[in-house]
Task: structure prediction
Amino acid sequence: MKVWPFILFLALSYSYSCQDFVKVDISDKQPRVGDLFSITCTLKNQNFPREEVDSLTYYPAKFLSSDSSKHQTAYKGIEIIEAKDSNYISEGDSISQRIYSVIAWDSCELVLEGFEYLIGGKTIKSEKVYLKVSLYEIVEGIELYDIKELFSNWKSRTNGSKVKFWIFIGVIIVMVLGATIAFLKRYFTRKIERDHKLPLDERVLLEIDRLYAEELWLHDKLQEHFVRFSYLLRSYLTERFELSFLDKTTFQSKTLLKKIDLPESLRIKIVELLTSSDYIKFADSSMSNERIALLKIAVTNIIEETTPKNDQEHD
Result:
């Protein structure tokens, strides 16, 4: 009977030594849109559950806003690029960490809610952390316009006229997007039909040469250049490996690449190219002419390295 108090003492000591919450630290609490930063989750004397961290897409967060309709609503814009686990000993305690590499895609103020972990039959919540994401300052030579500047400064006299105005604007946007999508579809369809006799690698490299010949970045069309650049790379990967990359995010594409028998260094190069194009497409950023030229060399190398030798000898 004297053994039970000792066992109870050990059990209580262990429970007190374990955390009732997950400690959360952020490498940058005021990141810029499109910047890569990390969220470190820490547990003492407990281990994170083994789970498929590659299946996680977004880090849980909520808006902080003066707009009551938006405040405390879920925000799915903290994209998880990678998650890594590590363990070490500190002052006699076992420390377990899970580090999420993430990117924020919108300028806003957030509270990071974090994940809930089921450990030893008990649900442990993550510590809430405040985050403020802002846009980069305007880069000289590249102008950014607010959508209001595209229209006359009309003042609606009634709520009805204001609703009609925004319906009109919405119809215009839908029509422009529809026309753009139809144009791009016809453009690439005609190009593919024209060059269908060429091998896949030669055909895509020809399209890349045509894209770079237009030098869109010199005519304030940097985003259009990278939208088409990303499309060509994803189209090549889709046709080469018979897996659809066209409808996948960069994070989903990274997971998809793991199913393909490729050297790890080549997978990293492909993900870097996709991330670079996303950075321009979604973050309104700029890029030097030298960097743009290097990306062409990089995508050319990827196409050459992923083309089977039999195809190259046939060419």
Notes: Residues 7-16, 144-157 have pLDDT under 50 and may be disordered. Residues 159-194 form the longest helix (36 residues).
